[in-house]
Amino acid sequence: MTLTIQKSVTKFHNKKAHLSYIENNCFSMTRTSLLAILIAATIAITITPQIMAQEENTDVSVWDSTVIPVFGIYSVGGSGQIAGNFAVDTFEKKDTAIQVGLRAQDRFDGPIEPIGNVYFAPTGESAPGIANWNFDWSADAGTTYLQEQLGKDLTSQDLEDYTVILEIVDTEGNTYSLDFLDIPYPPGPVLLSQSSQNVGFGFIGLPIDSAAYDISLSVSNDKGRTLAESEITVIVTDETPDNGKIDICHKGKKTINVSVNSVTAHLNHGDTVGAC
After folding, report:
1. Which stretches of 23-95 are assigned E, i.e. beta strand?
2. How far is 89 from 98, CA to CA, in rounded Å?
């Protein structure tokens, strides 16, 4: 989403070059007219960014085990749910909005405090074949909870009118993809879909001993345009980052201290988390 907007802005970034191009191809236009068109086009791009940048370590519209499931509302459920620490992306256009959010949480200690959109989850199993951490998702198509959070009146949408995709890729290249249309919801619109899942659960079936997982949740319209997307990385290690950095054993020979944002790149090249 951001790349598309950036490309549009870049097209008009070099005003002098763009002006020259138009003058060479549209001789009947005056310089004043050209500048007016250029300014209008730039303003149009500037004031209509309907896709917001992903917000990190924040709240989704609602995350509460006391929310009673009603028509179209499929909340997280369970007991003792704690809000916060989500990576959230919200699409707004006129009186509609769609929000998606992802996070990781320790199955025993609760939500994990991220560094940016990177979550450091504990190693080990909480039960045979089940990782010690869960990932949580939320997709809201305009519930009263989202209206209250955004402070505006919204016309509720139906998530089933969109393409909602959850994707997981681990360091070894194993993948899992879920199309929300494959979820057996009861008949009727889906306004809110939430869940807390584990990479070791049978329907996902990914190895739980991978060093890292990239997880994304996206919503696209019928034209294939991505409206909102949340992306997180879960690093599975008992090492603790310090000031946004962590030790990596590079090529099995040298300990280097790197930004948490570059950890997955090192893991993909065979490095490991922790000192050599």
Report:
1. 55-58, 73-74, 86-93
2. 8
Please tell me the distance from the alpha carbon of residue 121 to that of residue 260, in angstroms, as a whole number.
Answer: 13
Q: Are 246 and 273 in contact (CB under 8 A)?
A: yes
Output the pTM of the full model. 0.81
Closest CA to 82 of 151, 148, 134: 134
In the structure, what pLDDT confidence band is assigned to residue 194 with cuts at 50, 70 and 90? very high
Q: Distance of CA 92 to CAs 43, 50, 51, Å?
A: 19, 5, 7
The residue type of 198 is N
| Alpha carbons 175 and 210: distance in angstroms, whole number | 12
Give CA–CA dist 135/195, Å, rounded: 8
Contact 231, 100 (CB under 8 A): no
Q: What pLDDT score does 158 carry? A: 98
Look at residue 115 in the predicted model and tell me its pLDDT: 97
Nearest of 88, 62, 87, 67 to residue 79 by alpha carbon: 67
